[in-house]
Amino acid sequence: MRRTDHMASTTPRESRRDSDVVLSNFGHKEHLFKFLVIGDYGVGKTALVRRYTEGKFSSNYKITIGADFAIKTLDWDPQTKINLQLWDIAGHERFGYMTRVYYKYAVAAALVFDISRAATFQSMKKWLNDLREKVALPDGSGIPVVLLANKCDISVAVTDEQISKFCRENKIHAWYATSAKNNTNVETAIRYLVDKVLSSRFDNGIRDSIQLRHESTFSREKSICCK
Ligand SMILES: Nc1nc2c(ncn2[C@@H]2O[C@H](COP(=O)(O)OP(=O)(O)O)[C@@H](O)[C@H]2O)c(=O)[nH]1
Ligand SMILES: [Mg+2]
After folding, report:
1. Backbone Cα Rg of the chain
2. Which compartment or compartments is the protein found in (predicted)?
3. Which atom of ligand 1 is nearest to the CA of 40?
4. Ligand 1 mutation pick, 37, 38, 43, 184, max ligand atoms within 8 A of CB
5. Which ligand neighbours the alpha carbon of 177 most closely?
6. Cα(41) to centroid of ligand 2, in Å?
7. Could you give all domains of the chain from N- to C-terminal order, each with its CATH number?
8. Torsions phi, psi of 212, nearest 5?
9. Closest Cα to atom 26, ligand 1: which residue?
10. Most confident of 48-52, 66-70, 85-89, 160-164
């Protein structure tokens, strides 16, 4: 695993977000989190989303126009279920920015570049600026971001030092070298983001829960990660 955790300063967060429905039922919580997957065309966003949600990799994807999302349900712990929506910006990469509608209610983002193509790393600043300009928490701080240096199974054109420096300068707390092809660090990176979102809520004592009238039965079949 290649990852940096630095920048000790963390900004406190406040309660938020219509999309983050939290259902509470006899101690059980169910969250809905919208995560964005952003970056230039061809860096592997769709491949990462498919790898994570379907466990598959294919070198041939049809180009989809419009924002696409895939859902995965995580049994995070015996009391917590998370419905994760991964939004893939399919077809809009050429603009280098997204509309506010696309960013709405997002609680975290993965910025992706292709480690074999330096130009896609140079674009990260532009994508990050667009993200931070268009989505902020009520207290003005940004949503958690992870940087993914994808295609680490092929040639490397950007060094660890360059990536770490970029993260330090832009207050990105973690980055991972990933491969959608070889399934390297894909789950780890998403888990990092989920953990960030959950812990910041916990830190702020968020109590935005709805009591359910009847006990519901939560499926535990697709348990993929527990803390
Ligand atoms: N070797 C390798 N190829 C990848 C990886 N991820 C994606 N690709 C390939 O890169 C190309 C673009 O991927 P795609 O997911 O469509 O990129 P997107 O435009 O960012 O959604 C496709 O041919 C993928 O098969 C990876 O981790 N390793
Ligand atoms: Mg795509």
Report:
1. 17
2. Membrane
3. 20
4. 43
5. 1
6. 7
7. 3-212 (3.40.50.300)
8. -85, 150
9. 151
10. 160-164
Which amino acid makes up residue 16? R
Rounded to 5°, angle at Cα 8 from 194 and 84 = 10
Report CA(120)–ligand 2 centroid distance (Å): 14
**pLDDT tens digits along 151-197:** 999 999 999 999 999 999 999 999 999 999 999 999 999 999 999 99
| Per-residue pLDDT tens digits for 13-23 | 333 444 455 66
* Cβ neighbourhood burial of 11 (10 Å; 0-12, 13-18, 19+): exposed
Encoding tokens for residue 227?
């803390």
CA-CA distances (angstroms) from residue 172 to 94, 107, 123?
A: 24, 15, 15
Q: Which residues form ligand 1's pocket by a CB distance below 6 Å? A: 41-47, 59, 61, 150-151, 153-154, 179-181
Q: DSSP assignment, residue 141?
A: P
Residues 6+ apart with CB under 8 A from 222: 72, 73, 74, 75
- Enter the tokens of residue 164: 């770490």
As a whole number of angstroms, the longest Cα–Cα distance in the chain is: 55
Tokens representing residue 187 in the block: 């789950």
Give the pLDDT score at 20.
55
Tokens standing for residue 64:
């989809």
